[in-house]
Amino acid sequence: MIEVKNLNKIYSSFSGDVKVLSDINFKINDAELTIIEGVSGSGKSTLLSIMAGLEKPTSGEVVIDNDSIAKLPDIHISRLRASTIGMVFQNFNLIENLSSLDNVLTPLIALKTPLKEAKYLAENALKVANIEHQKNQVVSKLSGGEKQRVAIARAIVANPTLLLCDEPTANLDYKNSKIFLELITKLSKKGITIVIATHDPIFKELELNYSLIMIKSGQILSKEQING
Ligand SMILES: Nc1ncnc2c1ncn2[C@@H]1O[C@H](COP(=O)(O)OP(=O)(O)OP(=O)(O)O)[C@@H](O)[C@H]1O
Ligand SMILES: [Mg+2]
Question: What is the pTM of this model?
Answer without folding.
Answer: 0.96
